[in-house]
Amino acid sequence: MRTGTITRADCEALDRTDPLASMRKHFTLPADLVYLDGNSLGALPRAARAHVGRMIDDDWGQGLVRSWMTAGWYELPRTLGDRLAPLLGTGPGQVVVGDSTSVNVFKAVTAALRLRPDRDVVVSDHANFPSDLYAVESAASPHHAEVRPLIDPDRLDLDERVAAVVMGHVDYRTGAMRDMAAVTERVHRHGALMIWDVCHSAGAMPLHLASCDVDFAIGCTYKYLNGGPGAPAFLYAAPRFHQTAEPSPQGWFGHADPFAFDTRYTPAPSVSRFLVGTPPLLAYAALEGSLEVWERTDLGTVREKSVAQTSLFIDLVEERCGDRLELVTPRDPSVRGSQVSYRHPAAPALVEALGERGVIADARRPDILRFGFAPLYVTYADVWRAAETLATVAGRHDRA
Ligand SMILES: *Cc1c(COP(=O)(O)O)cnc(C)c1O
Asked: Most buried pick, 75, 78, 125, 250, via CB within 10 A?
């Protein structure tokens, strides 16, 4: 798209032919706001309100405790997992929804260490979101396993001591995307298990967890998936582990028969063994509203628009700012997630100035500016306005 002169009219024309243009009406967004932080908290799907209202008025208000069975509460961690499955490239019965990403990382690592009892190293991507690192460390330590930092994701340092590798699919800071199939294959060749964090790719592109032969994957539903603040995370476990994995912590929702109230723990012979306790049902209701929107679209189209928007933004910003902003996201869209990041010494101040002008982005200290593109509700005109506004605030900062 490097033509040298992309006009506002060009961007508006792209909106008119956008196959996803009709999706924006399924979201409630403040007027005149350009929202490029859906990679941190996705926008509000209109349907969420009705689902939360139904859960409160009917299921809780009228059904009360009976709703565990009559309203499907008990099954929700699995039914929502099955509805997420097509977005993740997995089959039914392989995903559960619950807890947070951090807790699910902990579960996957504990399960992996027990599945590889003769190994005592977990390789952990140090570019990954720090909470993942904290969870990996706390899972490894009671097993006396060593956490080996992965400094360069392109150079996996693996030996026969490595039980598992934990890696972010899309780097939350730079937006760089790893090759899920190739990395997983390489990790398997060394006899280790592969745990992917897909927080920054779920809902932004088609994922193929099953065909990439991933062992475990974890992600949150409040970013590109628009499940709402505090929405539950998900965990995928390959079916080969449904009878054998022993994740910690154990809780009654992971028991084969929770209502037997057995004092001895027998894990469910399914992915349910990755559940722990009572799920946050009001948050699940909001996620149901978001899944309704997802069921109206396909991720192939979402990815196409994401690539078009991130490419457009890179071009527009380059035209306006040149090298005053250092692009840290790969230019090659095949190794890029749905965000564009720049390095600038005044990143937090620029984000604040953008916000004052109605463009929401975010900063990651010390010097990273992040722009997330959620194709279901971000327009090409938004991309134009964000680039123009960024040029203005960066120019002012440089002159100040
Ligand atoms: C957003 C994010 C998290 C957040 O973890 P929670 O436990 O859900 O708060 C963890 N890891 C990554 C990679 C993330 O992007």
From this structure: 125
